[in-house]
Amino acid sequence: MSVIVSTGLVASVVRYCCLCMVVFYNLVTFVMQENIEQRYAIKFCVKLNKSATETFASLTEAYGDATLSRNMVFKWHKAFKEGRENVDDDPHSRRPISSTNNENVEVVRAVMVKDRRLRNLYLHD
Known about the structure:
By secondary structure, the chain is mainly alpha-helical. It has one domain (2-84, 100-124). The protein contains four helices and two strands. The protein has helices spanning 7-47, 52-63, 70-81, 102-117, and strands at 2-6, 120-124. The N and C termini lie close together (6 Å). The model is unreliable at 118-125 (pLDDT under 50).
């Protein structure tokens, strides 16, 4: 079975997917920055000898629904109390959170340029 899909439709779908990736990347970046900010606040509270419970209450007052989970606040509080200085995540071997990089952007760009020259794209099951 063949389905004819217009070049305009393909280009629209590719643009929509690219836009979704950009929005997702920006959202993840914003959340990560806010998490780092809260870790600095936790570190500060540890230096003031506040308990983990007091620290969580202060963060909840300041950040509301965007506060780190209670477990995460307690984890970071304990780490800073034990002498940790770095607020960044430890390195890991998992896949990166985002697949947006210069190489992928160029591939998508090339596909979009190529598809503009085509009249129809045939998809086969």
